[in-house]
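Listing S7. Sequence submitted for prediction.
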Amino acid sequence: MVRDVIFCLQEAAAEIILKHSSTSKKLTECFISPPCGCANPGQELKCEDCPYLEACFSSIKLESRE
């Protein structure tokens, strides 16, 4: 339960950060200097828990549906 609340707070924070910054239009822009310090997204396990990357990928997916 506590982990779910923490995860939701992380997602909300990432969403706020992305709304204030310019929203990426290309998938490759998500990989350039993510604030979570993930140097090799998709290759490092710590990258799986990066709320910035999740929010960035979600924003691209949502834009492509509209």
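Caption to Listing S7: primary sequence and predicted structure tokens for the chain studied. The chain has a mean pLDDT of 75. DSSP finds three helices and no strands in the chain.
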